[in-house]
């Protein structure tokens, strides 16, 4: 009897399982993403979507949940990210999806918080990222030409894209499978360089589109800045104001998508520049105008959180801090008034989404530089009234009612008569960021230092020409030594060492003594040095340390770009003295620094060299120095940063993790460093004994370095201040002075 009862119960349970599984399978099978001329269509419903870019490698897994939650609270529906090929396949066939590079974990966190994902696979991404995201080993593939109808490149591109799509499918992450990915991107802004490839460009565009679509992801594909994106791939816009500059979709059957609404003036986010952010009212104006004028239904903020360019990942001259200040700043803190002003815009647009997505559209002039855009259904109406005048407000009449439009503004009218949002009216107080000093390193006895020696002529490999730097270093280091010898018949007479380089920085030594340095800038990346010196009679050794501050990330033919020294001469100071051209003499070269080779930035590697405990008063402000000390984790939960304003140029590690390049000696026009505070994620730290190592190229004073915590308060009354405060001059409180 018991067996029969148990059998009945088992049968009933099994039937329930079948029903549940059947329902779940049916629910998944009914999930779909398509599009028409108005919007992306998710499960048969058009959607207005606001998206925010958050790049998983530019933060940490411990930060991801908070970043995504704050984006969701700010009215974001979609998290957009690139996929970083060179981070995932640094060596051909060897993959890394761990830690900050755990793409699947990041996407699942987005899914867990109920948001969609826009996955920009590329795999060329630019993104102000090292080599545009391409792994440098591609450079050495025989016969390769990047990003054109070239078989070796297409083979490796297809192999990587297929791998990423396969990973997403295996984890059921595309929307029709039950996942959050609703759209993917192939290539990136190719139209900018396509003419350089002549007849090899257009076939590549068609191939890339066909290859991507053929992977059968079940979601649409997009190409940004590609007006001729082949069907069914959607062409999308990147830029500052796509509502004003973009010609629109290349088919009436494709929606208007904006994949990059830039949240800061990126050209100023570079060493030697004074950063400025885009005002909240300007971001809101651009987004609202795109929705109104282009019938836009997808707006992505690039970036919503910029984060940190850890290690050597930044492209030339780009600061370690990335897109600070976006709606979420580098540290993941809410930045006002941008965050709230955009949140209010999102709510106002969503309130009128039915009219926007299904209403009849019309537009007409309200006078010079003034427009009305109307979306009307039988039961609802929404209007966008636009004033393009940069400096003057405008009085307009719309449907027998008068409105005053501030300069360069859009007002949104619910039911076409009630103002629900004005892009120019920013009511939230602005943020002020404070930096509190919790520890200092002014006790010289707690520092140790060692020099990175200048290589001997016979330490390196030999060549009879100046080598291309990236081809030689394989982009595994910023540094390459070039060493040559020459005979001088002069004794006691000044000579001039003339060096021209397509790298970014030159440090020059003659007979192992420093004689000069020079660097370029983001507008003229190359460097030219003229250094006076007095040669020895007879043999002299010239040692030149060439430095890259990021590998190129844009432009055609990256594989052909020359970097490094190309001209070296020794000139006499007398008008008719002979010039000695060393460019094609015998050169010895050595890749990287000795400290890099021994990995002395790690606790284990630091034991491989001899460190000195001399007073830093004798060793500070010297070039090519390594410094080390320890410090404890600051109390609390506020983000942590190192203030490196007293240093020059180099790189810094904490517990073996590189938190990035620093370059505080390259001042902005206002005399301040472009960046002095460098983010150390708390997940990099342990409660005590944190191992801090710096490599200083130029000479700096480590005794003035401090460990700070960062906080934000809302105190500014308006949105008129566009400058990002120089990070060395943020409001600072001295809480303690504790030896490291």
UniProtKB/TrEMBL annotation:
Location of the protein in the cell: Secreted, Extracellular space, Apoplast
- Residue spans making up a coiled coil are none
Give the highest taxon in the source lineage: Eukaryota
Q: Which residues form the Glycoside hydrolase 35 catalytic domain?
A: 40-348
Q: Which Gene Ontology BP annotations are present? A: carbohydrate metabolic process
Transmembrane as a keyword of this entry, yes or no, is no
According to its UniProt record, the EC number is 3.2.1.23
Checking SUPFAM superfamilies in the record gives: (Trans)glycosidases, Galactose-binding domain-like
Signal peptide per UniProt: 1-22
Q: What GO CC annotations are associated with the protein?
A: apoplast
User: Any idea where the Beta-galactosidase beta-sandwich domain is?
Assistant: 371-426
Quickly give the catalysed reaction: Hydrolysis of terminal non-reducing beta-D-galactose residues in beta-D-galactosides
GO MF term list: beta-galactosidase activity
Residues annotated as domain Beta-galactosidase galactose-binding: 625-690
Alphabetized Pfam families for the sequence: BetaGal_gal-bd, GHD, Glyco_hydro_35
**UniProt keywords, alphabetically:** Apoplast, Glycoprotein, Glycosidase, Hydrolase, Secreted, Signal
Q: What does the similarity note say?
A: Belongs to the glycosyl hydrolase 35 family.
Query: What is the name attached to this protein's record?
Result: Beta-galactosidase
Q: To which species is this protein native?
A: Rhynchospora pubera
